[in-house]
Amino acid sequence: LATILTFFAPPxxxxxxRAHAPRQKAAPANETEIGVRLFQSxxxxxxxxxxxxxxxxxKDDHRxxxxxxxxxxxxxxxxxxxxxxxxxxxxxxxxAAARAGLAYLHMLTGKRRDAEREAARAVELDKASVDAxxxxxxxxxxxxxxxxxxxxxxxxxxxxxxxxxAYYLKSQAAIGLYNKADAVLTDGGRGxxxxxxxxxxxxxxxxxxxxxxxxxxxxxxxxxxxxARDAELQREQVETLxxxxxxxxxxxxxxxPS
Length: 258
Fold this sequence. Notes:
This protein is an all-alpha fold. It has 12 helices and no strands. It has helices spanning about 15-20, 30-40, 45-55, 60-75, 80-90, 95-110, 110-125, 130-145, 145-160, 165-190, 195-225, 230-245.
């Protein structure tokens, strides 16, 4: 069994943002819909071609611009993605979908403060912005604020119970809490913390439950997103977590939230 489990934060599911995206008349020949379908199938190059054409023909097709930003981001073209989101925000400053997209782009480029600002603004504009809440969850994950990660994940699930990324967040929060407790237990054994024996015993008994919680949420994520990146590796990790929960031993030698 693997002793180091590595997780990769999945991108936001743009289809979730679709419900909150501005809806204007599509360009002739329904190029926007073609571009969206190409994007959702993973053909980002084809999506960009169709969406660019749609927006060129109809500068008010903000939905095309939204997906164009995500398509460029998926191809790693930060400059063009930022350009698309900036254009959309200039046209629609109160678009939660645009600000959520820009927030995730900021996350990818290491601009966490900017990411949080845009995500918070998106949530102000639309409490049901799943993608914005996901970005906030990733920021809290990076900070090691595990309980706050769960708060965002639970809020997402309340909005959309089939949001795979919410269960990803919950799996990572459970792992983080497990490792935090393990550090306390280890240091506590050396007298580093003034915890009494009862507190230490309860914390130790709860550890296998954390691993099971992580496994259950990761499995739910994979059920909702069976073709996720590294899905096979993650399925193995589900079994690893459960195996170590049964033995009560620690499966992690190193853990750093991504």
